[in-house]
Specification:
With about 375 residues, the protein is mainly β. It is about 10% helix and about 30% strand. The chain has 2 domains: about 230 residues, Alpha-Beta Complex (Sulfite Oxidase, Chain A, domain 2); about 120 residues, Immunoglobulin-like. It is globular.
Amino acid sequence: SDYAREPPRHPALLVNSKEPFNAEPHRSALVSSYVTPVEFFYKRNHGPVPIVDDIHKYCVSISDLVENATELYMKDILELPKYAVTATLQCAGNRRTAMSKTRKVKGVGWDIGAIGNAVWGGAKLADVLEMIGIPKFSRISPLGGKHVEFRNPNSHLALQEENGGPYKASIPLSQATNPEADVLLAYEMNGETLNRDHGYPLRVVVPGVIGARSVKWLDSINILAEECQGFFVQKDYKMFPPSVDWDNIDWSTRRPQMDFPVQSAICSLEEVNCIKPGKVTVKGYAVSGGGRGIERVDVSTDGGQTWIEASKSQKAGTPYVSDDESCDKWAWILFEAEADIPESSEIVAKAVDITGNIQPENVQVIWNLRGILNTSWHRVLVQIAH
Ligand code: MTE
Ligand code: MO
């Protein structure tokens, strides 16, 4: 079968779909460290994992509107300056299972673990594009291109990918050529060679943007006049209002989702918990898209009537300051609050980003048929065992 040569995976992962392989870590694993270990980082695949046997022959072709492409070999990419960017990758479908409880949505079910924070090592896309004659901070390429498309079409296996065939996505040229946007062609994850599940030998990482744009197993980069017309850009990963259903959907009316909204979730507790009376530690993650830092995380132990502010951290030993240069702007923060739980109740978390965006109170108001961007207040139940 096409899935006969899948990579080995950690047995503790929660598998949401076997073929293609989609899995997330247990909640508690998400908050055991600021940088998510590779084996516990969620895996989101739309098809079988490609195999690259000969790294010396592996190359990425780059073209700017005309046919004659530049071939970029791994050694060319390794010769460019190397950057390490700590960035949180989040699937737009994170927390989809909870959205489905309101009204059924289409897509792989996820609890709160379709998210992870890694140190990505690689070359900056802005440097790669400069090498082929597109200057930094360009909005339009010398030949008139405005979008940068990433593809992985060459593997024979990719042709059978879910619905849309080869996997592709695009980002605006202005973002691709902006060195401060930190878009990477990554070959390392947490200081190790990227593994097959996460895109070996080379993947795109677009910080602050839904995971779907960070194309794995990169095969070609194409400068286009228009946005990529691929399935996953045009017929998926778009946010529709609650009134739109499968019988009245018009995909062309919405833009592809790029940045993700402010998000947080409680990871130290399951959906329903039985605890002894007394203090409970509430730990979780909070992150916002577009490099917007986290201003505040509020925790409630009475279903949202009263709130306390949680403490926030990134790297151990350094205080987190939402707009400070020394903090990782593309990365999540971990939060922690201690609370007395005198009686059975609902514990809630909500985050606020530096622009004042706040998570919505209920999932009902943001329900959408593809079940993306469930950023509603995260709630867990605690029952007191007397
Ligand atoms: N790239 C390719 N080639 N094929 C894919 O199926 N899935 C995308 C993106 N890049 C995908 C891909 C989606 S939807 C997400 S959320 C991220 O990869 C997941 O990356 P990860 O598996 O490394 O966590
Ligand atoms: Mo995704």
